[in-house]
Predict the structure.
Amino acid sequence: MPKQPIQLLASPHCNTRPNTPIDLIVLHAISLPDGEFGSKHITDFFLGNLDTSAHPSFKDLEGVKVSAHFVVARDGNITQFVSTNQRAWHAGKSTWEGRDNCNDYSIGIEIIGDERQPFTRQQYTETARLCRSLIAQHPTLEKHRIVGHQDIAPTRKWDPGTQWDWSRFRRSFAHIKHLHTADIKKFSDLLLAGGVDHHRFSALASGGCCFAMNYLAHDFARRFDHHLAVFLSANPIIFQSLQTLQW
Ligand SMILES: [Zn+2]
């Protein structure tokens, strides 16, 4: 089973994809500051809230607007920042198989880590589960089209680097049984369309957990009730689970 449902935090750092199929997954590694593996600064960075006075190295990040679709923490918990239908800003100048601008047609996954320390067992398992779930939801993705940032931008980028064991990742991938079941493509599109307050909204968005769905729908309804009809009509699983909820 997934370690936890995917947490959702909507980043403003995204835009519309051109009309090309999504057929690549790009794995990255990130730590902020370098070598420290908490997720707070990464979250702030992707939400556009990073306090650049918090560490001397953050000065270089002043005004930088980047994001990834997903971040995998050291304990395997996953946060989604951008709908996979949207274009996240993770790859930069990049090329794969002769096609430039990988952001246009890829999904970006940041794994918290660096060049020196091994990634965790939970990160292999949960990154593999996420990739399998994405492939299940996007028919144009395939398991052999998962690459590293260093593969698509070899002169600029090192990540996920030599610590990421691709053989171990492929073994994890082969052994995953339970996928994330919520529709992670449409879900955050709806949140964005609803004008959600990026800084306050945090939702449990996956895992097929009725309690999480109820909690989410209830919270959404309380604060954004004018969007509820749209939200429910596009999310039949939540609608069904609400039949049993006391309002
Ligand atoms: Zn990267």
Remarks:
- The radius of gyration is 18 Å.
- Residues 210-247 form one domain.
